[in-house]
Amino acid sequence: MTSISNRFRSPANLTPLLLCLLASLPFRAEAQAPPGKPDPASPPPPVTYHRLVPGRSTVAEVREALGQPLEEHRWYSYKLLYPAAGREGHFDAVHLRSSNGKDGELGCVEAASIPQGLKTLTEVKSALGEPEFFLEFHRQSLADYSEKGVRFTFDFQGNTIGAAYFPHGRRRVHSGERRFLSLRALPQGPQPPPENAPPPDLSAGVSRIDITPQKAEWLGPVAQGKPFRIHDPMQARCAVLARGALKVAIVGADLFGLSKSEVDPIEKRLQEKGLSHLLLCMSHNHAAPDTIGIYGHYPREYVEYLQERIYQGVLEADRALKPVARLSAGSQELPLDGSRVEGLFRNARNPGIVDPQLAVLQASGADGKPIVTFVHFACHAEGLSTGVLEPSADFPGYLCDALDRDPGGQTVFLNGALGGMVSGDSKARTHDEARVTGERLAAIAREVLRTATSPRSARFEIGRYRLEVPVTNPKFVLFQKLANRRPLVQGRIATDMFHLRLGDAELVTIPGELLPEVSFEILARMQGFPRMLVGLTNDELGYMLPGYDFNEGQYEESMSVGPAIGPMVRDQAIRMVESQRDGAGGGAR
Ligand SMILES: [Zn+2]
C-alpha cells in the first residue's frame, strides 16, 4: 500500500501540506474563554454577574454594566479587571471573546466578589440544589453547576470565596458519572516531622545546559525576515538521582514539546552510559520553537542540537554525583479566591477547575546546602505575546533563577496537569509580568521549604509502563503520516508513563496535557506526599480529556489524538499507583 507518507516524504513537499493542516486547526485565542452560546430561547441563568449572560451579552453591554475597568489587556483574547466588591486586594476578571476589546461578547467571569445571598455552601445549595459535581481539596472545595453556568469555590469553613460565570445550558458531568470526589484526607501542607528519618542513601548530581536556539531558521517560518532576538536563555536543568544500579535522570527543559520518537534516542544513548531512566519534563514553553512540527515546520537541526545537548547535560550531572544527606518535601494548597489562583493560574476552558497544589522536593548535601530542588504545579507557559519571535523561558525561567539564587543549588521545574486549559492569570502577556509570576511562585516555594520535612521512607523506585492509544483525530492521523517519524500501529501510538517513588514523594508522568479534572481522579488514589502528576514527560500527545466532557469541535478536542486517551491514561496511572502501593512490590522495572 502506498501511504501518503511515502509520497510526501521530502521536506519541500511536507511543509505546504503541514501548513494546510495548520490552517484547519482552530485559532488559539478561542481557548481563552469557554466556548458555546446558550440557546437563544433559554431563560437567563439563575445567578449572574451584574445581570450579564456569558455567550449572550455583547462587549458594549459588558462595558455599560461594569464601567471603566481598573486594567484591560489582550491575553490571547481580551480581559478586563475590576476590584472585587468588599474584598480588598482581590479582583474580578472578565474575559471577552474579542480581539480588540470592543466587538464580540462576554466569554466568562472569574469573580472574587460574592454574589448576594450565596455567601456559604449551605446558601448556595439551598438556592441552586445539589451541584452537578462537588470536589473537596484538602482545605477548599468546589461546587460545579455547569448547566446553570456557574461554579463556586469555598474555604474550609464553607464560605464562598469565588464564583465563575460561563455560558449556561450544557451539563459538564453527566448523570451516571462521578458526582463527588474528595482529596481531603490526603496529606497536604506542613507535616509533622518524623521521629527518625531514614538516611536517604542516595546520590544526586546536577548540571544546567543552555538550549537557546542558535539560528533564526530554528524558530520556524513565523520568524522569517524578522530580527533574531533572544530575550532570555532557555535551559535544560538536569538532575541525576542514583542508588546502586538505579540511575534516574530528571530533566526540566524550557521546551514546547518533544515526541517520544525524539526522546527515546537520548535515553538509549544514556543507557549505554549506565543511566537507567530518563524523564524529560518539558515546561510547554510557548516562546520556544515548535519542536514537534505540529504547526507546519519541524526544525530538525534544532531537535538534533537539543538531543545532543540534553545527552551531554545528563552525563555532566552524572559526573557531579555526590551523597545526599537529607531529602525534604512539602506542599501548599494555594487560595482559590476568585475561582482561580489569582494572579498565577486559571482554567480558561472550565473556569474554577484548577489544582491549587504547589509541591517542592529537595535533596541537600552533607554541607546542608541544596543540590536540587524540584518545584511542581500546573500552568501553561504561554504568558508572552511575542511567542517564539522573542525566545524566552517565560515564568519557569524566572522561578528557577530566583530559587537558584536563594536557597541555592539547582531548581528543576516540573509542570503538572495543565491541559484544557490551565493558563496564566497575569495581567498582561509581557516579559515583566512573566518575571512577576515566576518570582512570586519562587517566594511560595521558599515558604513551602521552610516547613518541609524529611520523609518517613527511604524508597527510591521507578516503574515504566507502556501504553498504546488509538489516534482517531483525522488531523493527527494525517500529521503522523506526513511527518513519518513515528509509525502508527493499527491506528495506535505507543507511549510511556513512569511511576517514581522518592522518599514519601510519589510522581506519575503523563505523556502530554492532562485535564485537571482527570488528574483529580488519579490524585485521589495516590498515597505519597507530595503527589505530583508531571505532564509532557518524554512525549507530547496533546490534550487528554475526560470521556464525559469530550465535545467534538472544541479547541482542546481538536488538539487531542482522540477521546480514548484521557480515560486510558487515567486508568493506567491508577493501575501504576495501586501496583506500587506500600508493600505491593517495588524496585526498578
Ligand atoms: Zn497546551
Main traits of this protein?
disordered N terminus, 12 helices, globular, alpha+beta, five-stranded mixed sheet, 26 strands, 589 residues, disordered C terminus, 26% strand, nine-stranded mixed sheet, binds zinc ion
Question: How would you characterize this protein structure?
Answer:
With 589 residues, this protein is an alpha+beta fold. The protein has two domains: 59-182, no CATH class; 203-580, no CATH class. The chain is built from twelve helices and 26 strands. The strands form six sheets. The protein has a nine-stranded mixed beta sheet, with helices on one face. The radius of gyration is 23 Å and the shape is globular.
- What molecules are bound to this protein? zinc ion
Characterize the biggest β-sheet: 9 strands, mixed
Tally of distinct domains:
2
Q: Which overall shape is indicated by the principal axes computed on the Cα atoms? A: globular
Class by alpha and beta content: alpha+beta
> What percent of residues adopt helix (DSSP H or I)?
10-25%
Average pLDDT level: 92
Share of residues in strands: 25-35%
What strand line-up does the widest sheet have?
Answer: 1-2-3-4-8-7-6-5-9
Low-confidence stretches: 1-13, 584-589
In angstroms, what separates the terminal alpha carbons? Answer: 38 Å
User: What's the total number of strands?
Assistant: 26
If helices are DSSP runs of H or I spanning 4 or more residues, what is the number of helices? 12
Rg, Å, rounded: 23 Å
